[in-house]
TrEMBL record:
Pfam families in UniProt: AAA_15 (PF13175)
Family matches, as InterPro entries: AAA_GajA/Old/RecF-like, Bact_Antivir_Def_Nuclease, P-loop_NTPase
Protein name: AAA domain-containing protein, putative AbiEii toxin, Type IV TA system
Organism (species): Anaerovibrio lipolyticus DSM 3074
Occurrences of domain Endonuclease GajA/Old nuclease/RecF-like AAA (ranges): 210-336
Length: 428
């Protein structure tokens, strides 16, 4: 299998991008540069098979179009809900190539609209299933499984899970969140950003399984886990506890946090960092113990976290990746980028036989074979001024230090200038 690829030309702030979507992908750069647009486009294309499958489940005679047209119409609606109608301009082109070399291409037409072009195998699938789409008995379980297997062959086996910025709203609203969302009609829900709506529904699906927290979730599935996944899940539990500083659980429609002191509080009263990170932890843990193939797309995992917390969330993402999943995340944080580099370098030394992970100087930092990152399965891009530039240094095989320290260099440079001015003025 190959590597997925995303090409963007003139879409929103992105002038040009050619991005290899490897198993562990870092997107960094200044704010408002387009990192989230790249991440959302990967989500958009990766979740296309869910659109196709959902349309196949519909009872066709109630709808005026065949499968292919319904899929295209849904893609256009989804694009509008995610990005609005201002990003498609003259010469806009977006193309996504899946691991098996099948592809989808969006091309500007006029008045903000775009056409959709499918590669041969995707086209064939949609045409072949027009007939099966209308056949009696198509809701049979065996037929559903057949469709899922065929779609996995065409689009890949991974499902996309998007964890957006602003995710703390589900916790900050507390028990009113579920009431608020339940009171919205379908039209109102569809006006939400598509990725945020998907995250809300993901949380609402997982939360009822957390009446005993992620410890209870782990206990429920641990006997079904292979030895390696059981070890990874146990490490995740320990890291999650250190990160959240307590135990999260969900009971009677209310999110609770039991602090290390023994005090129990509603998540509404938790710190902003705890509110931001608990959704990431719960989702990662759920999919690791249920052994699904997932592409996690996470915006700003560092939000409201102290540097040590940023180190821990980086470790959690690395473990989730090593459990057989893919991870994409956007970040501004030099701490997270620095920790990713540490895990790249540790993996390189470990494979060379130059790093003893049992050495107390290393083990005290919590480094183990389970949270190392292989550079050949990873990549990083720096998004700035409309261009996405690969920022892995060819010699060091790590994220370019200039991209990590750019802001620090400016800040420290100003400080050095002021110190020198003080020294000179003091001498006068």
């Amino acid at each position: 299998m190959g590597v997925s690829n995303l090409k963007i030309k003139k879409f929103g702030p992105i002038k040009e991008a050619d991005i290899d979507v490897k198993d562990f992908l870092v997107l960094t750069g200044p704010q408002a540069a387009g990192k989230s647009i790249v991440a959302k486009l990967v989500y958009y294309f990766t979740s296309l098979k869910e659109i196709v499958y959902a349309k196949q489940l519909l009872n066709y005679p109630q709808h005026p179009y065949k499968l292919k047209q319904q899929v295209i119409d849904n893609m256009k609606t989804k694009m509008f809900l995610m990005f609005g109608d201002d990003y498609f301009i003259a010469d806009t082109e977006i193309a996504f190539t899946y691991e098996n070399c099948e592809s989808v291409r969006l091309v500007y037409c006029n008045n903000g609209h775009f056409s959709v072009e499918f590669s041969t195998r995707i086209n064939n699938y949609l045409h072949i299933h027009d007939k099966e789409f209308t056949a009696p008995g198509t809701h049979d379980i065996n037929v559903k499984d057949k469709w899922k297997n065929e779609l996995n062959e065409v689009f890949g086996a991974f499902i996309a899970v998007y964890i957006p910025a602003g995710r703390s709203m589900t916790s900050s609203l507390g028990k009113y969140f579920y009431y608020w969302y339940a009171m919205m009609d379908d039209e109102q829900k569809n006006m939400l950003d598509y990725s945020i709506k998907g995250y809300i529904e993901e949380i609402m699906r997982i939360d009822p399984l957390l009446d005993k927290g992620i410890v209870g979730l782990h206990n429920k599935y641990r006997d079904k886990l292979p030895a390696l996944l059981e070890r990874l899940a146990t490490i995740m539990l320990n890291n999650a506890h250190d990160l959240i500083k307590g135990k999260y659980y969900f009971r009677s429609g209310v999110e609770k946090l039991q602090l290390d002191s023994g005090e129990e509080i509603d998540m509404q009263q938790a710190s902003s960092g705890q509110q931001e990170v608990v959704g990431i932890v719960n989702i990662l843990m759920y999919y690791v113990v249920t052994q699904r193939n997932v592409l996690f797309i996470i915006e700003e995992p560092e939000a409201h976290l102290f540097p040590d917390g940023q180190r821990l969330i980086t470790r959690l993402m690395a473990i989730a990746h090593n459990a057989g999943n893919k991870v994409i995340f956007t970040t501004h944080s030099p701490y997270i980028l620095g920790e990713v580099n540490n895990l790249f370098y540790a993996h390189y030394l470990y494979k060379k036989g130059l790093l003893d992970l049992n050495n107390i100087l290393i083990s005290d930092y919590g480094v183990s074979e389970h949270n190392l990152l292989a550079i050949d399965k990873s990549t990083a891009y720096f998004v700035k001024d409309g261009i996405a530039e690969m920022c892995i240094n060819e010699e060091s095989l790590m994220i370019d230090q200039d991209k990590i320290d750019g802001a620090s260099i400016m800040i420290n440079g100003l400080f050095d200038v002021m110190v020198e001015l003080e020294r000179k003025n003091g001498e006068d």
